[in-house]
Write a structure and sequence with these properties.
Aspartate Aminotransferase, domain 1; 44% helix; 5 strands; 132 residues
């Protein structure tokens, strides 16, 4: 893969294989609708979504599939059978480009991950600071 330096999510999507572009635009819209106050950025040269001070989701496009990251243990436990067919490995959720987009599942993934990140940020903020 050629070295890239994407400056925006639009630029990232435009550089993807033709079959992936429309799907990535739809997935992007699903994530933005699910977590409207999320900040969309490029991180690790792929689209990332930040909420409550942390990244909750990344998306990437490939020739034959698109992926969402990370599939945390809590997320997998909460979505069980719904997410099982899409787990590619410990942290990756992979969807085939030729299959219908599972809109509701992606929406649930985005919302659950945003809640996980917000909960972690709240716990960190509540933790007493150590004196030096």
């Amino acid at each position: 893969m050629a070295k890239t330096d994407y400056k925006s999510v639009d630029q990232y999507i435009a550089a993807q294989p033709e079959d992936a572009r429309a799907v990535l635009k739809r997935v992007r819209g699903i994530v933005k609708k699910a977590v409207p106050d999320a900040e969309e950025v490029i991180s690790y040269q792929i689209p990332g979504y930040r909420h409550a001070g942390g990244f909750f989701l990344y998306i990437s496009g490939w020739k034959e599939h698109y992926s969402l990251y990370p599939a945390t243990d809590d997320l997998v436990a909460q979505l069980k059978d719904d997410i099982a067919p899409y787990l590619a490995n410990k942290n990756t959720i992979r969807f085939d480009l030729t299959d219908p987009i599972p809109t509701r599942l992606i929406e649930r993934i985005a919302k659950l991950r945003a809640k996980e990140v917000a909960k972690k940020a709240t716990a960190k903020a509540a933790k007493p600071k150590r004196k030096r």
